[in-house]
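FW: tagging you since you asked about this chain on Friday. Here's the raw sequence from the shared folder, copied in full. Didn't touch anything.
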Amino acid sequence: MRKMHYNEGMNIKLARQLIANELEEEEDEDEEMKDDTETEDITVDPPQDGK
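HL: got it, structure written out here
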């Protein structure tokens, strides 16, 4: 019985670490995407009529 409980405790600890790592990676990706959109400047020239 003790071994089963010990393994469950270790599994919970490992699961928490994995979840934390995944959340950090997602935040990093979100920041990278945010940086890309902020630095991207798009200029559009108004249409010029040739009259």
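FW: The mean pLDDT is 77.
HL: agreed, and The CA atoms of residues 32 and 43 lie 22 Å apart.
FW: great, closing this out.
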